[in-house]
Specification:
This protein has 14 helices and 13 strands. With 463 residues, it is of the alpha/beta class. It folds into 3 domains: 205 residues, Glycogen Phosphorylase B (Rossmann fold); 31 residues; 179 residues, Glycogen Phosphorylase B (Rossmann fold). The protein has a 7-stranded parallel β-sheet, with helices on both faces. A 6-stranded parallel β-sheet has the order 10-9-8-11-12-13, with helices on both faces. Helix 2 packs antiparallel against helix 3 and helix 4 runs parallel beside helix 5. It is globular. The two termini are 25 Å apart.
């Protein structure tokens, strides 16, 4: 892999050593696990020693062992247990006999589950934090990290990162993949709990030397929240992206069937309701041939799509709703589909959030149907080319896009996809090198919680 050489850490002859605390890490199948896993791999390829403290695989919604591919054998990986009382109560309940004498025990265990979930400080991973701190400090005794990087959500690991950073007297960097308590676009905790959590976040941010995020808007919100800090952290945008190594060089698109492929989550307002209605109308009109058209959904949404239409609808003959696919298989389907679909939930005003899957869809070079409000995703899609854009609730625009693409395919017209050259900035390897250089500046400047310099004359600019 080509790239800039890693600057040496001032005062140290050895390669830089980075300690990462992130609940999600391979084999967790969450997008956050992929982000951190790619950073760890690229940094190791550039001579950086990496140690990771992450959550146990059994706590993940889905495991994907294929995500281990490419991770260095030299990686130090500590996996403290997550002793959430609700999990233990659930396991005990599963072993109880289903007979009346055991019902009081079952009810008691259900009460333990409810209380432990409601009483968890910050979030449901808070019970993992003490073990994570202990394991991180144990690793640090032999690893001697130069910097501590903690990534969220979940955000209770931020507490672990702040504690470990202070104990080791090394810089702390916070990586926000989503907002915590700083965004009005996300539901906040209310009452005393919400105020306490906001205070904790502000304290942790004020102790950090750097704050990075996958979305620019989060950096602006955190900067404004801490505008009065004596010495605010440095801010740096590190977007999600694609990894060229995940893509096959010899993929082939099926020529006998028009397939619209969606790989991603369906939750909240992110629902393909208008798309399904549009496709149903085109099927009823005879515009789409049932024997030559497929609308495929891949991800953790078993039953959700089927519940959006009746069994006697023609949609039941063209909709395929499968379960989770390993990441490599999901990428292969992106390359082999006629058209790929990215869905962003509707909201009032422009959207500033870019789905992590968008970058991989663009790099797949297949025509992209982007259903999104105007905002960051639509600007990127227009710059990339090869994209059809419609609001996720605009049934007329969606119907027109599907019809136009399908009829062009039937005629044998070429269907150009996005231009990879226009999204080269989002290559994960490039982003990992940018991130590494940012971490290097924090170390070389001697930014440390115990060595505070005079406050800057101006607020730090966002990249």
């Amino acid at each position: 892999m080509q790239g800039a050489s890693v600057p040496s850490h001032r005062g140290h002859d050895n390669p830089r050593r980075v300690l990462i605390i992130s609940y999600h890490f391979p084999p967790h199948a969450a997008s956050g696990a992929i982000r951190i896993g790619k950073f760890a791999r690229t940094w190791s390829e550039h001579g950086v020693s990496v140690a990771v403290v992450s959550g146990p695989p059994e706590a993940a919604q889905v495991e994907d062992p294929s995500l281990h591919a490419g991770l260095p054998t030299s990686l130090i990986h500590e996996v403290p247990a997550d002793p959430h009382p609700a999990r233990w109560a659930q396991r005990l309940k599963a072993r109880l006999p289903r007979t009346p004498p055991w019902r009081p025990v079952d009810h008691a265990l259900s009460a333990v589950q409810w209380v432990s979930e409601k009483a968890a400080p910050l979030d449901q991973r808070a019970y993992w934090v003490p073990g994570a701190i202990w394991r991180a400090l144990r690793v640090a005794r032999r690893f001697s990290p130069h910097i501590v990087l903690v990534s969220g959500p979940p955000f209770s690991p931020f507490v672990a990162g702040a504690f470990v950073s202070a104990a080791l007297r090394v810089p702390l960097v916070l990586d926000y993949r989503d907002p915590w308590m700083t965004s009005s676009m996300f539901r906040r905790a209310s009452g005393i709990g919400g105020r306490v959590t906001s205070w904790i976040e502000r304290r942790i941010v004020s102790s950090a030397e750097g704050v990075t995020s996958a979305h620019r808007v989060i950096l602006g919100q955190i900067r404004d929240l801490n505008a009065d800090a004596a010495r605010p952290p440095r801010f740096f945008w590190v977007p999600n992206g694609y990894d060229p190594q995940d893509f096959a060089a010899d993929s082939r698109v099926a020529v006998d069937r028009f397939t619209i492929n969606y790989a991603g989550a369906i939750y909240g307002a992110r629902r393909p309701t208008a798309l399904l209605l549009s496709v149903e109308e085109l099927l009823d009109e005879g515009t789409l041939d049932v024997s030559r058209f497929t609308l495929r959904f891949v991800g953790r949404h078993t039953g959700k799509v089927e519940a959006m239409f009746s069994r006697d609808s023609l949609l039941s003959k063209v909709v395929e709703a499968g379960g989770y696919l390993p990441h490599r298989d999901s990428i292969r389907q992106l390359q082999e589909s006629t058209v790929n679909l990215v869905l962003v939930g509707p909201r009032a005003g422009p959207t500033f959030w870019t789905p992590a899957k968008l970058y991989e869809n663009l790099f797949a070079e297949r025509p992209l149907l982007l259903l999104s409000p105007e905002g960051v995703p639509t600007r990127l899609a227009r710059r990339s080319g090869g994209c059809w854009i419609a609001h996720p609730e605009d049934k007329g625009a969606i119907k027109h896009a599907v019809k136009t693409l399908y009829e062009a395919w039937v005629r044998g017209d070429p269907l150009p996809g996005p231009d990879r050259r226009r999204i080269a900035f989002f290559d994960r390897n490039h982003q990992a090198r940018r991130f590494l250089r940012f971490l290097g500046t924090l170390c070389e400047e001697g930014r440390s919680p115990l060595r505070r310099a005079e406050p800057p004359t101006s607020r730090p600019a966002l990249e």
